[in-house]
Amino acid sequence: MIIDNKEIEFSEGATILEVAKKAEIYIPTLCYFEGLEGYGACRLCLCKVEGSKKLLPACTTPANEGMVVTTKNDEIQQLRRELIKLILSEHPYSCLICENKEKCETLRTSLDKAGRIFGCFSCPNKEDCEIRKIIDYLEIEKVDYQLSYKNYPLQREDPFIEKDYNLCILCGRCVRVCNELRGIGAINFSDRGHDTKVSTAFELPYIDTNCQFCGACVDACPTGALSSKKTKWNIHYTDVKNSTCGFCSIGCGFKYFSVNGNLSDSIPDNESPINKGQGCLIGRFCTSEFNNGKSRLKFPSFKSNYKHIPSGWDDIVSKTVKKLKIFRPEEIAILASPNLTNESAFILNKFARQIIGTNKLFLPIKENKVNIFYNLLNDYLDTKNYKRSFEDIENSDYIILINADPQITHPTLLINLNKAKKRGAKIISLNLSKYNLSLETQKLLDFKLNLKRQDIIEAFVALNMNIFNNINLQEKSLENAEGFETWINNSNIQSKSDELENLYKELMNLLKQKENFNGLILFGFINHLSDAYIQNLLGLLVNLIILTNNKFHLIPLWNSGNIEGVYQNLFYNNQYKSAYEIFNEIENGKIKLLYLTERIENTGLLEKLDTIILQDIFPSKDLKYADIILPTCTFLEDSGTYTNSESKMLMINKNAKSKGDSMPDWKIFCELAHTYRDNNSLKFDYSNPDEIRHEMLRDNSYYKTSDKKSECKYKLFIPNLDENFKSSFEIYTQKSFNFRGEPIYNQVADLKNLIEYRTEKLKQIKKGDNGNEDVSKPQFKILYNEEIVPNIYKLIIKAPFIAAKAKPCNFIIIMKNEKSERIPLTLSDWNQEQGTITVYYQEKGLSTLELAKANEGEELFSVVGPLGKDVEFSNFGTVLLGGGCYGIGSIYPIARKLKELRNRVIVILESKNKLLFYLEKKFETLVDKVVYCTSDGSKGIKGKIETAISHVIEAEETIDRCYFIGCNYMMMEASEKTQSEGNIPTFVNLSTIMIDGTGMCGGCRVTLLKEGAEITKFACVDGPTFNGHNIKWDLLIKRNARFDVVEEQSYQTQSCKALENLHLEDENE
Amino acid sequence: MSNSIKKRTLLICRGSGCNSLNARNIHELIEESIKDNKLEDTIEIKKTGCHGFCQVGPTLIIQPDNILYVHLKIDDINTIIEKHLKKDEIVEELLYKDPTTGNYIKNLDDIQFYQRQYPLITKNCGKINPEDIKEFLSIGGYASIKRVLEKFNPLDVIEEIKKSGLRGRGGAGFPTGQKWLFCQQASGQPKYLICNGDEGDPGAFMDRAILESDPHSVIEGMMIAAYAIETKKGYAYIRAEYPLAIKRFSLALKQAEDAGFLGKNIFGSGFDFEIELKKGAGAFVCGEETALMQSIMGKRGMPRPKPPFPAISGLWGKPTNINNVKTLASVPRIIEKGAEWFKSIGTEEAPGTIVFALTGKINNSGLVELPLGTTIGELVFDIGGGIPNGKKFKAVQTGGPSGGCIPEKFLDTPLDYKHLTSLGSIMGSGGFIVLDEDTCMVELARYFISFTQNESCGKCVPCRVGTKRMFDILTKITEGRAKMKDLNRLEKLARIVKETSLCGLGQTAPNPVLTTIKYFREEYEAHIKYKSCPALVCEKLIEYHIDADACIGCGICKKNCTANAINGEKNEPHQIISDFCINCGVCYSSCPQNAIYKTTNQIK
Q1: Position with higher pLDDT, A446 vs A498
Q2: CB–CB contact A1002 B453 (8 Å)
């Protein structure tokens, strides 16, 4: 194709914009975002394509053979100028076109730390603003429109993220990144036309939605509309460096910003091939706060008389060495933190095994199973040539999660899983029955089985058998196939459920049919499961790989950042001791000195030891027992490499200066080694980790390229199912996210609040349930549902969140079943403590009939609310309320509120006959006067509402305000009456036909007359309370009657009209 | 006497228009009265769809007499039965009265409204009971699809449609055969077919009338299209605001299924096809094809740029063909009578007929079908019967909010795609709103822009922000606050919105503004330069006065005035105090003597 007279090669499926970008031809755009599909909304990338009458957006138009594109000419530039001016007409632009712009930029070096952003001078996105870039490019100097500022309130109630939608240009990047890429969908567009905005469902704060606070929306925003709360005003960093995040074993690339050596912000690196600009809550928002934690250990110290006394490194090093020399080498054990860099681990290995002479190196319990994994890989596959990568996830056809919850342990991997799902991959999960997966992980699954420990093993034995029996053994030279066959024949295992049986069938079919089938296993490690159990399970998975001829990939989801690298440096071709073995030896008194590079928080053990040396970053329970404290550095203050779960070695760069006198781990080990043995022949005088790495790559046989492939054994693993697998286990939660044992949430206040808020919320939802229920959906249990007077039902529902936020005039939308119509009902009462809400409804059609039939204890499919605009109440004086039918119940909370505010409250209750009144006692005790009116005169005044209003007006001196709730006809009559009686301000709660309740469908359209003009409002979002004198009642009543025919029909067929197709229903009859 | 009663058929219009004027009760009453009078054997009653002449509804046609009774009321039923049915006497006062001659017209075919029409798509409308498949079958329904399945292969069908020159009746007028071919040849399975019944233009009701009056023709058209593009699944997207259309269409679907016309192995040919009805929630933008598809998929109705076109990547990313109701309803006729016959109707460049919803300031409003190429004047004056109350014709707005205004000097322009586009308007799907001298063109443009502005999905900048800015400027003009440079800006902005918007909604939204500026520039200038609204519409630019000679001092205006701006003693002429007057116009419309008049600034 030809772009701007340049002939350019392109790949199939690329858009013009992508091709141009590669060829370094700039096309301005605001809505395009790498990683997302083209959107075509900002129109700035419009280009001329030969043969097309219209200009085409480069971001969505696919490149074609022979296409001739002009990206820039006077006409196009002129159009772009006009378009950007339109965008600017709703985005505070004065700074952008200011004559003094340049001068201001140089003089105003610090930001105006304003809440509301009204110009670039106070905008946190100033440096990265894409609008500014485009304005410079298009040379805009004047905007022909007055600024139309939308004046939305600032949204600051959420942790981590602050929103100022007055700057939003609706490019939709945040929405798309959240939906398309992350698969979360916490935000979307609401309203339409000029009022379109980005919002969560029902404009809830993010914290009340399923938002994961990954920050992708913030980083996708081209303006300052979304910003990171903590770093909103920290844009004047002095240094920025790329590095790798070390909090989990993905190894995401980040850009780390620092101010004079202090870490200030971390933003995912777009260039990183691993995470491609995406991050997670921990990496994006918690890194700097964690790293700068106030309680960081800063000075080396030693214990004297139960006190820790700081000292210089020389002194401490010599004291440490003295302690080490007291004991025989076999009396010394060293705990290696899985957060050490490869270089530090390499030096630790050298120091421990060759200087001290101990082999008692071990890893924390949480990573205790690492040796099983690598031994199996070593023995049965080929460790070094066994390639695995996160990109495999995207290309997989079938993904099995075993005890894995990536949303909790490896959040960024959800993107890969989401991509796989979009491509059509099937994702299933097998996990221990007590292990509740997070909702976001569950959302991805096609199928989920909660199994008992033994059943998971047996499921894979059965799967092994299925495949084994279906392959042609001659094709493969497997070492112990016969042994395996014998074992199988004796093992007598059959799959226990139909579900599993179907799973095998499906998998077998896929394996047979798909030539290049890609399978993937994500293996999560749960603490404290027995070694034998993990051995068997992993062994069976290894068999799966062998039997399918490498059609499956296995990715371990380690709990810590550099476990693989630490393992390879300390235990490759070296003796491995498990934590339990070491603990036993401590119990038996065989080990006397423990050198910790990560806490163990086991006081029983610590008390048994003679000497404890603690090399850590934060204080912990262990501190009290430590004889020597060696403060060290995080991955942000050291350089080196980390090896992630896909066995890739990733560079760590020093981004911040070390805290106090703390030193990197490798340096501490080197110092100790020097002092331990003067003039030793081993090299310990490195000036930087690069030198260490050089040696490491040379000396550690793991890193040497070898021809090991030829000796690859390829034998089948034979499980030993006689082992007793009984053991306790610990579930990994967001709280367990740690670095060197220090939980991240301990240091990050917002994270702590977030976790606590959401845990509490889950608990609340769970409360009142019978325990074992799925927490994925709030349950709305019916506590009471009785007909209290003819056709009027009282309904009490358990809905603690609605109860907590309810206000008078709010309403809720109920769906009885998944396919029911939505019924809007005004809230009548609520109890925050009991978490209940009460509504009164009238049986008036099919859906309310369905609701009326519901029994106590049943659950409603959904209850949404509280909805509707809040209504301001104050001390008005004398207020007249009127309620009829269901409105008697709905008017009650207004009466209560008005009484709280010390109004004189008069209530008219209207009905056809006295039998239809309810809540009379409650009203009589609450308000100043209750007037009854009935059509037949059976109680109170004979007549309709207007008659009763006349009565009240005659009796009262003044009426300052009125509220009416009832049928539309009643509210119309009442409003007309109060208008003719001297325009008493009158408000009504409209009952309209509502479908979605978000302002989109338009079903609840209401026409108001304001200053002579007709304006359209939507009762669900603009109401339901309106000034009764402004409503065009005739239109409203007509509109409500519009569906009468359909309603009638559906009532006859007793099936829902809104969701089912009528012809389908007829068939069912 | 009773033995002399002729066999007759009564065709009662039960379209939405007549229904809203009590046709249901009239229908029931007729049925009862016929039974009471024991006339069941000789009189057949047919419930039909729209007769087209909505202006005079509720209507009743008596065949074979070919009599049209209009403006029926409950009380008239007895008269018709007693006189016409029993005694063979025509009830003259219920006949249609020609407004120009004042004569009652006895023969339906002599009514000018019907005389010039060419019912092709609406052939069956008002003649058969849309709720009874048998009636449709009795007039040759489903014969075209049967023929297609027996004698044509898919490409033959496409060739036939291509030959006929049929163009999409949804607005843009893309050649239908070509569109089908694209989809037929696209790779990817399954493919989908959509019938677009999301008619959202204010004042348009062509699709509704067809779906209500002749749903089986649409189904048959969909079947032929499905066979041609080789799909097994069709969606009919009809807006939920058309409950009657939905009811009748779903009934028709069920009947067609029961008869074996839909489902597996249709007519034993091996062709499978099913249709699912989807109800649209009423967003105007969902008439745009890509937004409509989003809506079917359960997403927010927002359009996406093309290419890729739906024929390549539509519903769920699969090849999809989408046609308007009227296009699909034309298809069985073309198959039945041949491409050559179809080509002989209309013009060479645009063969066939077009259905218009004739509304506005016009004597005969209703549903009209004409060969393409009929002139605007013929439609307005010959069929529409001209402007009521002796007012002057000013312009006509075709194509709804997406179209433009065409002034009087173009009355001789033939109605077809090419000519309307050259005037800056569009054919659209058939909205035709007639405007008289009392219409302010600036206010009209403002109305249409406020409509499109509200109905924009909010995705692309020119449509979301551009139309809003246009609306702001138009509001300024109607309030007399604008300067001439605002008019230039408005024109410029309109061109930008037209040129750069993502979808048809935005691309056509400026048409009413651009055409009114083009043809009625002096009216804009009057508003700007002289703060004058010549049509006396724009509230801020007019004043109300009371003609002292005509005022009888009844006090009605004074009582109704919300601003207390009227003075005057009972039985004495009243006065309006202009300082207090808020120009709401209540006095003007409530004066029984027409003594209140409006003025505006003089144009110098």
Answers
A1: A446
A2: no
